[in-house]
Amino acid sequence: MLAHVITAARTLIWRDLLLALRRRSDIATALLFFIIVSSLFPLGVGAEPNLLRAIAPGVIWVAALLSSMLSLGRLFAGDYADGTLEQLMLGAAPLGVVVAAKSFAHWVVSGLPLVLMAPVIALQYDVAAPLYGVLALSLLLGTPVLSIIGAIGAALTLGLRGGGVLLSLLVLPLYVPVLILGAGAVDMAAAGLSPAGQLELLAAMLIVAAAFAPWAAAAALRISAE
Amino acid sequence: MTTHSIKWFWFASPHTFYPLAGTIARVSAALAAIFAAAGLYVAFFVAPTDAQQGEVYRIIFIHVPAAWMSMFIYVVMAFWSALGFAMHTRLSAMMARALAPTGALFTFIALWTGSLWGKPTWGTWWVWDARLTSELILLFLYFGFMALQAAIDDRRRADRAGALLAIVGVVNIPIIYYSVQWWNTLHQGASVSFTKAPSMAATMLTGMLLMALAFWMYSIAVALTRLRCEIAEVP
After folding, report:
1. Where exactly are the structural domains of chain A?
2. Helices A2-22 and A24-45: angle between axes, nearest 10 degrees
3. CA–CA distance from B28 to each of B42, B213, B224 (Å)?
4. Least CB-CB distance to A180: which of B152, B169, B179?
5. Which of A37, A116, A142, B14 is most exposed by smallest CB count within 10 Å?
6. A3 to chain B, minimum CA–CA distance in Å?
7. Exposure of B121 by Cβ count < 10 A (0-12 exposed, 13-18 middle, 19+ buried)?
8. What's the pLDDT at B72?
9. What is the structure's pLDDT at B189?
10. What are B50's strand-pairing partners?
């Protein structure tokens, strides 16, 4: 039984990644959004290096939050439109596992590029080089949480008119702890302190979210697609 | 002879609860008026002037009960949501739907009066204090709940989706609260402390409790009236 579930999850992840690969512009758009938003802040607040260094972790994290949220709409919409989602719901694999697999694929497509791109943005903000690792690590631990929690919102707003704006209203308040811990870790490291506390809490949130949120999202999918 | 048990489930039907809701709403409204009159009397004429803050502290009689209610109503809303989610009772979902605007109202009042209180005492309308920030996020959660319900035309789906969101929200509230508190101490230290002077006059506490009771009764009256409208709307 377990082997079947793992196979189903692997197949689904592979399929979603393949679909994303066939529509590369979608990945590029979210990443470009991240870069553009981060580039707007210096234009708005001024290019004073000390100020930029101070706001860098927060700006990068908020941009990551928004960018990850923007692509949430696609998480289930395509499968819902062509009927695949119904088949997945009828399938033998538990729906929670299906959601977890799709969230993971979503993260690989929308979260992982941000992790890789963040040090480049940090460079623009004149962030000290030793902090790149902490920033990337905080994003590596935090962005999966965004994808998993976001899946609940995406499932709840599936097929609704104005779903995108509504999704942001539902999901952004729930993202607050991730933002605080993620940006906080970089701030701690910048202040010369150990960011271990924040990173460990982020890891804890990832574990708890990965364990529970897919089932909540699965329940939401059943409500939305019944 | 006859074991006289209360028929709880008898009132789980919207149809049978409708008249009872009306009675409870009327009684609660009357009680709310009485408690509010007594509470405001204590607040303005009995409670002493604060040694440090002068007369301005009297907004506490609105502010603190509103903040209490704002959090309490969300928990009650989540309770009805969970019950409706588990037992498929239509009335529970209607209850959650009826409570949300009142909860949002109290959250807004708590923020507003807090800001009115903050200006003369701290010299600023807003500080990023942990409690203020989490209250603001609570307001967003209420708005999210109401917006989701408003966006879904199908009644059944709206109820169940809203219920799930309320449950997810109530699980997240402690996490949000502690993370915000931590963020606050990390960023600015204890610049503003909300803890009041240790010796609070007994009359102040009485006034606050009376106002809390008044708000409580008001919430019941308004929510049940709204519930009656919900019931009347559904065929």
Report:
1. 2-225
2. 70
3. 21, 10, 10
4. B179
5. A116
6. 30
7. middle
8. 92
9. 45
10. B54
What is the predicted ipTM? 0.88
Number of domains observed in the structure of chain B: 1
Q: What are phi and psi of B54, to 5 degrees?
A: 75, -145
A223 closest CB neighbour out of B161, B168, B182: B161
| Domain assignment of residue B2, yes or no | no
Residues of chain B with Cβ-Cβ distance to A226 below 8 Å are 157
Domain residue limits at B23: 16-233
Question: Would the CB atoms of B161 and A216 count as touching at under 8 Å?
Answer: no
- SS3 category, B123: coil
- Residue B11: the pLDDT is 74
pLDDT tier at B3, thresholds 50, 70, 90: low
In chain B, which residue's Cα lies nearest the Cα of A54? B187
| pLDDT above 80 (res A1) | no
Selected residue with higher pLDDT from B202 and A193: A193
Report how far residue B161's alpha carbon sits from residue B14's, in angstroms, rounded to the nearest whole number.
20
CA distance A81 to chain B (A): 18
- Count how many pairs of residues, chain A against chain B, have C-beta atoms within 8 Å: 68
- Stated pTM of the model: 0.89
Give residue B155's pLDDT: 86
Rounded to the nearest angstrom, the minimum Cα separation between B54 and chain A is: 37
